[in-house]
Amino acid sequence: MVNKKTLMVFMLVFSLVISTAPLFVSAAQPEKINVIIGFYSEPDTALIKAHNGEVKNSMPQIHAVTATIPVTAIGALQNNPNIRYIEEDKYVQLLQSQPVPWGVNRIDAERVWSSNTGKGVVIAICDTGIDYDHPDLAANCIAGKSFVDYTADPMDDDGHGTHCAGIAAALNNEIGVVGVAPQASLMPVKILNYNGGAVFSWVADGIMWAADNGADVISLSIGYDSHVQPWQDACDYAYYTKGCVVVAASGNDGNPGGNNDCVDYPARYASTIAVAATTQSDSRASFSSTGPDVELAAPGYQIYSTLWDNTYDTMSGTSMACPHVAGVAALVIASCITNNVDVRNQMASTAEDLGATGRDIRYGYGLVDAEAAAGPPPNKHDVAITSISAPSSVLINDTANIDVTVANKGTYAETTTVTLTDTYDGGIIGSQDVTLNAGASTVVTFMWDTTGEALVDHVLEATASVVEGETETADNSMATKVKVYKQGQQTDMWVSGISWRIKQAGPNTFLYYTVTIMSNDGAVSSATVYSTLTGPDGTWHYSGLTDSNGQVEFSLKGASSGTYIAEVTDINHASYMYNPSLDEGNPSTYTF
Fold this sequence. Notes:
CATH topology of the largest domain: Rossmann fold
Helix content: 10-25%
Low-confidence stretches: 1-30, 92-96, 469-475
Strand content: 35-45%
Radius of gyration: 32 Å
CATH class of the largest domain: Alpha Beta
Largest sheet: 7 strands, parallel
Number of helices: 9
Distance between the termini: 38 Å
Structural class: alpha/beta
CATH architecture of the largest domain: 3-Layer(aba) Sandwich
Number of domains: 4
């Protein structure tokens, strides 16, 4: 977005072959031929002239000359004892080169590619579109969509989106540039027009469409200086509901001192990762927005990448920093860390600290580090349970399928035992052996015949261990909670939890709490929830409808510091009855 300058880079590679083998010439060659003649000592120009040749240039350093000689003279000259070789003076070929951009190199992305290129992960570039015919992008581009008002084609007509796409995932194909995750899939989502402008709905619709259509990572190199509720709702939907990693440019509103709170929206939202821009010297780019919402930093100054119409260009801005982090997020996901919260924490915890020690307003947690976040693990034996899927509730004496995903993050093929245990009574539901190649994962399904006491939480824990060798990992177990019911209790609904968060926006502190309503069938949507919030300054009454995840969020603007108590007082639904005896975490207390 800042300091746009064209940079064209070419590299010529010449080859010179010296050979003592005879030079065979077909009858189709010209009557005379351009050659380089090498001598054992000083060149004999008279000898060349005696064979009707013409000397063109002398190369005394290597005792050679360039000349034009008749084809019929080649044999006689090659037999002359003073001539070491005769080489045809051919044209050299221009070879294309693919430099690794300084930003990709600085975050050590190329150190990951031997084992992880982001393959199988989808990055949605929500921007001006992508030039999906670009030779450095075409093989990675998948179907996308346009939300602007004049075209249904997500083809880039500005260049900005294509530049961001190349940073994230340009192909490693020996031409142009290479991106952070060179085999990740690129989803073009056109939310900005040919001038880089948009209406609010284009942006919100594009984010949600990407989340609904398989995006694992959403890259947002856009910014606005005021809160836009549909944008927050869309980002929250993508992050909290669909499990996407949402990355956003922090904005280009910074000052040289770097002491403002000027992060743009949507980067300010809790559901997004706000990215600042750095230079080649690891300093903050002077234009990079600052503030407590900055979470990570990445290269964003003079970044060379793809441009529309099959070209390349250098651009600067937090727009360029954002797709660096999106590419690293893809590498982390491809390394078998698939939960979006875990991906976010992994990048934050492995970032290279810059500026003040710890998180600060200029660099957040620091410069994103692809190798530390997503590189191959040092352990040769490293298996992990990465997910466990089970119904939220089942009837007593019924059968349920429990799916456990196990991954081998080590460097050797492993035979792994996966065990599923009901920690309520300590009984082993089952054990299965599976052999995994390095970097591979698979789903193991267990059949659970429910027994024991009803109306309780049965915590199912899956563990993995290497059959031969020692398991060197800290994440080889994972648990999930399943409520078991007796027949006839399936019409009950209850509060399954209340979660809290705060958000600072200018002078106002917003306090949010989210209520989740569940039944034995799962999340309860379209339930009317009645709640009270009591705090230092009084009591507030709320009501609202749950969404498809059984959740409804209430908020208090201008919250004072202190202790708050949220309580659900009633729930109404056409098909379920509220049973407060089943509530979990109601009421809930929060202090800030």
